[in-house]
């Protein structure tokens, strides 16, 4: 493994996706409160209110009413992105619109596709043009084929009978914005630098600072402690888990994992100008 070895990121793709959306917001192509129906009129949810009003912000903070991991099983048995998104309308809401939290790969994917459509592009192309290329992330892609073609890549592994074995692999293109990016630690360090510098790299503003700052704010309560007087709740922003330390300083993180052989994590402590990325190719 070298600093340029390419790993599949799994759900660490989510804060990368919200960075791309923030760039599009800064460009004036979309807004966090744009309704999905205005950019993706064919998309629908079961709840008429959510169907009418659900926004990019709602989907990126997992508060749309969709059940936990909605659509994942359809992907597992072979359905593509368009078919999974089309079938989300048949799932009754798990909680009232904006009144709860349930982690959904395909809800976030729907929002990312809507934003890319508004920008006149595909998700894979807009991610490349608006984030990876400006940051010099030459080993990063939102297409599985690019990961497979990388000459220096980490193959997924699982433990069988106590021995690590190469797995059959994971093809996550259907949910690319939520779990389909691949990258190296050198490239990820560039992305971390961007966040720690409020959207700048080497003095150049790549992503609008205000649009990026929205991703760090709590939008949903992701964990409600049984004793909220003595235990801390956890929050979800836009593609980020959001928490605070004893001094009230923000902490951002996200993890990712594939049962077929990936475990990843990013953690940021902005006040300390510190970011940590760990990429592995084991379950």
Structure in words:
With 283 residues, the chain is of the alpha+beta class. It is built from 12 helices and 12 strands. It has helices spanning 13-26, 36-39, 48-53, 56-60, 72-76, 81-87, 105-118, 123-132, 144-149, 176-179, 185-196, 209-213; strands at 7-8, 157-160, 163-166, 182-183, 200-201, 204-205, 220-223, 234-236, 241-244, 250-258, 262-269, 274-280. The strands form 4 sheets. The protein has a 6-stranded antiparallel sheet with strand order 7-8-9-10-11-12, with helices on one face. A two-stranded antiparallel ribbon has the order 1-4. Strand 9 and strand 10 form a beta hairpin. Helix 1 packs parallel to helix 7 and helix 1 crosses helix 8 (123-132). The longest helix is centred in the N-terminal third of the chain and has 14 residues, at 13-26. The protein is globular and about 50 Å long. It starts with 6 loop residues before the first strand and ends with a strand.
């Amino acid at each position: 493994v070298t600093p340029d070895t390419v790993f599949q990121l799994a759900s660490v793709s989510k804060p990368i996706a919200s960075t791309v959306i923030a760039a599009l917001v800064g460009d004036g192509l979309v807004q966090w409160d744009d309704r999905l129906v205005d950019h993706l009129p064919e998309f629908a949810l079961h709840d008429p209110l959510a169907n009418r009003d659900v926004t990019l912000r709602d989907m990126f903070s997992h508060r749309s009413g969709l059940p936990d991991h909605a659509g994942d099983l359809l992907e597992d048995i072979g359905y593509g992105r368009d078919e999974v998104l089309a079938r989300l309308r048949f799932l009754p809401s798990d909680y009232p619109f904006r009144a709860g939290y349930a982690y959904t790969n395909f809800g976030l994917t729907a929002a990312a596709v809507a934003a890319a459509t508004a920008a006149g592009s595909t998700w894979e192309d807009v991610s490349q043009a608006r984030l990876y290329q400006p940051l010099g992330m030459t080993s990063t892609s939102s297409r599985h084929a690019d990961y497979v073609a990388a000459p220096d890549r980490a193959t997924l592994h699982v433990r069988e009978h106590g021995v690590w074995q190469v797995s059959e692999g994971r093809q996550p293109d259907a949910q690319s914005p939520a779990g389909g990016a691949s990258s190296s630690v050198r490239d990820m360090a560039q992305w971390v630098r961007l966040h720690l510098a409020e959207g700048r790299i080497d003095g150049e503003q790549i992503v609008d600072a205000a649009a990026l700052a929205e991703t760090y704010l709590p939008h949903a309560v992701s964990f409600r402690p049984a004793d909220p007087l003595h235990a801390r709740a956890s929050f979800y922003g836009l593609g980020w888990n959001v928490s605070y330390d004893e001094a009230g300083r923000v902490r951002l993180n996200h993890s990712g994992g594939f049962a077929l052989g990936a475990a990843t994590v990013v953690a940021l402590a902005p006040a300390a100008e510190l970011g940590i990325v760990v990429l592995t190719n084991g379950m």
